[in-house]
Each structure stands twice: as C-alpha cells, then as structure tokens.
Amino acid sequence: MLTGKQKRFLRAKAHHLNPIFQVGKTGVTDNMIQQIADVLEKRELIKVSILQNNFDDKHEVAEQLANGAQAHIVQVIGNTIILYKESKEHKEIQLP
C-alpha cells in the first residue's frame, strides 16, 4: 500500500499527464486491463478517464483496473483515475 506522503508525491507527478485510456459504455475489459498493465510497466504512472456514457461506479472501475493490473490507485478525482505500478525494467519514479 502507498502512504499518504507517497500518494501526494504521485499526484503532483501525475498533474501534467493526459489520460491515455478511456473507459466507455462497455466498461472494463480483459483487453483493456492487459494494455494498462503493459503501459504501466513502461510509464509507472498513468491517468484513465471514465467517459460519461459509462454508468458504473467510478470507484468500482478503479478497483477493477487496479486489481487486474496489480497496480495502486493513487486517486479518483472527478472522472479521472490515477494508477501507479512500480516498473521492473523501466524504474524512473523514486518514492519518498
């Protein structure tokens, strides 16, 4: 689990990022989870946006994505989810 200090640090790092995945009306799919896991291995920190035509609970969507990709939920704010997963090969972010 991430500490409050680590989450604040990651939120600051994620502030300038643009969402690179969108969860639409079809919801979370296995293919989407696999792609997110692959991108997290390269980038470590990503944003995912939930489109307005998705009527699932945003916190449930965040849980599904995080559990599927073995990532941490940094924040769910508005319709945006910030996910973090420490990279094995491309480690760039040093947590406090």
UniProtKB/TrEMBL annotation:
It comes from Pontibacillus litoralis JSM 072002. PANTHER family: RNA-BINDING PROTEIN YHBY (PTHR40065:SF3). Residues 1-96 form the CRM domain. GO terms for molecular function: RNA binding. Pfam families: CRS1_YhbY. It comes from the Bacteria. The keyword DNA repair does not apply. Keywords: RNA-binding. InterPro entries: RNA-binding_CRM, RNA-binding_domain, RNA-binding_YhbY, YhbY-like_sf. This is RNA-binding protein.
